[in-house]
Design brief:
Largest sheet: 8 strands, parallel, barrel
Order of helices and strands: HEHEHHEHEHEHEHHEHEHH
CATH architecture: Alpha-Beta Barrel
Shape: globular
Strand order of the largest sheet: 1-2-3-4-5-6-7-8
CATH superfamily: Aldolase class I
Number of strands: 8
Distance between the termini: 64 Å
Number of helices: 12
Length: 256
């Protein structure tokens, strides 16, 4: 595979419009997806401060060539962090993939799952890659024990993102907020680590993550777009909702 850090030197990157940052919160918003046009639109608009993707999102976007997708994205997104995930299940092969991905660019974070499909811990691999200076995004974390283990495995000053799947925790009927607050506290004093609220289900989660002190939240483009409703007048929102119902019924030609 072509070394992306070299091949992208030939094209000019898009610049995010950071002068008028659309995120009024302390938390950084990373766009989560694999639709190239949506990713570049978010970059142009200055709506987000980073990007993440994963094999599932790439498969849904019908991406057939991982390397070609990465080259296309990294030719434009050079100044913001972006995470690409390994897809092997054996740790030896994860190691090979991680080191190849890390060479794609200085803004690249390599996503490593906290376990493989057999539930075997990835901590030895995380220690090795971190010690060698690879920027990591440890993903699929759901317990405080896993957070603690990752905190202790990452070698400072190497940067790492601790991705806690708060949305999936909430899917089980558990409130993720106390866990996220404790995770932030657990990693305080570790400036090389960022706590990321992953898999949000609604815009409210963005405000919850911000209040918890999380550094990052991943959002789909739909959730990012809904930030425009911040502090919207609820009486006017009520009227607009009724207008929507009326307009849709009129267009449908309903009669009683």
């Amino acid at each position: 595979m072509t070394d992306l850090a070299t091949s992208t030197e030939r094209s000019k990157p898009l610049k995010a419009q950071t002068s008028e940052r659309s995120n009024p919160l302390r938390i950084e918003i990373y766009s989560d997806g694999a639709n190239v046009s949506e990713m570049l639109a978010a970059l142009r608009a200055g709506q987000v401060q980073g990007f993440t993707t994963n094999p599932t999102l790439m498969a849904k976007a019908k991406i057939a060539d991982y390397g070609a997708f990465a080259r296309e994205v990294l030719a434009e997104i050079r100044d913001l962090p972006i995470s690409f995930e390994v897809f092997a299940d054996e740790f030896a092969e994860m190691d090979v993939q991680a080191r190849k991905i890390a060479k794609w660019g200085p803004n690249v974070y390599v996503k490593i799952p906290i376990t493989n499909t057999r539930g075997e811990s990835a901590l030895p691999l995380i220690r090795s890659l971190s010690a060698d200076g690879l920027q990591l995004n440890i993903t699929a974390i759901m317990t405080l024990d896993q957070v603690r283990e990752v905190r202790d495995a990452v070698a400072p000053p190497t940067s790492a993102i601790v991705s806690i799947f708060a949305g999936r925790i909430a899917d089980t009927g558990r409130d993720p907020v106390p866990l996220m607050r404790e995770a932030v506290q657990m990693c305080s004093g570790q400036p090389h680590l960022k706590i990321l609220w992953a898999s949000p289900r609604e815009v409210l989660n963005i405000y919850q993550a911000d209040a918890c002190g999380c550094h990052v939240i991943t959002c789909t483009p739909d959730l990012v777009a809904k930030l425009r409703f911040r502090d919207k007048d609820l009486i006017e929102y009520s009227r607009e909702t009724v207008q929507m119902f009326f307009d849709d019924a009129s267009r449908a030609g309903y009669r009683l």
